[in-house]
Structures are given as C-alpha cells and as structure tokens.
Design a protein that fits this description.
The chain has strands spanning 4-9, 16-20, 31-36, 42-46, 49-53, 58-64, 71-74, 80-84, 89-94, 98-105, 111-114, 117-118, 122-124, 127-132, 136-141. It is mostly beta strands. A five-stranded antiparallel β-sheet has the order 8-9-15-11-12, with no helix packed on it. A four-stranded antiparallel β-sheet has the order 1-6-3-4, with no helix packed on it.
C-alpha cells in the first residue's frame, strides 16, 4: 500500500502550481514515486514534486518508494500485506470475498491465487479485476 496519500485541490479560477515534499508528508528525504490514483500517471521525484493543476482541478496522489512491489489501490478491505520481493510475490489478507474486485498494482501480476487456488482475472491497465469467492490469503505473483 502507499506510504502516504495526498490530495491536491485547486479551488481557484485559474491554473495554480503546487509543491509537495516528503517531509511535509512525514517521510524521510529521498526518492519517491507519486501515482495519480485516478489517471494512473506516475511521477518520480527526489525532494519536492511540483504539479500544475488547472482551474477547479484536483489530484489524488499515492506516494510510495520507486522500487519494490506495490498495491496502489483496491476496492475491498486489505487487512494485512506481506511482501516477498526476492520471490516476486505479495501476500494479501482479506476478510470477505467480492465479485468484481479491483486490485491496482505497480504492474500487472502474472497470477493471483486464493489459498493456493488460481483465480482468473481480467486486466484493465495495471488493475486486475476478479471474483474473489471467499475471505483468505491472496498470493499475487509478478
């Protein structure tokens, strides 16, 4: 999951520039990946990120490290997450099943399993859309 999520709103009648630093978000200095959760656009920055928004525009940014496995967004509750980057796997704990679950990752996975059983999914960009029949542990393989 993202380290932080930041929302930017331009309430003005003209375009406006915004700057966002890791320190303002309570993060140590360093390089970060800012992903617009609505458009999927990704911007990498060290230090301060500058963004220009049009009049009455907004952006929701998921902030994460630029390396490693990342779950950017999901439309179901994730109770726990464990990363196994050396194996290219992510383990996700859910407490309920869901039809048409949407899991948005840093890159499309090659396989998703629920308690060892392979679940077919439909790719939509970096989002995997799938039916999760019950609660359990999802193993996401990249």
């Amino acid at each position: 999951l993202p380290l932080r999520t930041a929302a930017l709103f331009n309430l003005e009648d003209e375009a406006k520039s915004f700057s966002l630093s890791p320190q303002e978000l309570g993060l140590p200095a360093g390089r970060y990946l800012f992903t617009d959760v609505w458009s999927g656009e990704q911007m990498e920055a060290e230090g301060c990120l500058s963004v220009r928004l049009g009049p009455h525009a907004s952006r929701m940014l998921a902030v994460s490290r630029p390396d490693g496995l990342r779950l950017l967004d999901a439309n179901l509750r994730i109770n726990g997450i464990r990363l196994l980057p050396e194996e290219g796997r992510m383990l996700l704990e859910t407490d309920y099943g869901m039809e048409q679950a949407e899991l948005r990752f840093h890159t499309l996975p090659r396989e998703i399993r629920l308690d060892g059983r392979v679940l077919p999914f439909r790719p939509e960009g970096e989002t995997a859309v799938l039916d999760i029949p019950a609660k359990g542990q999802l193993t996401v393989c990249f």
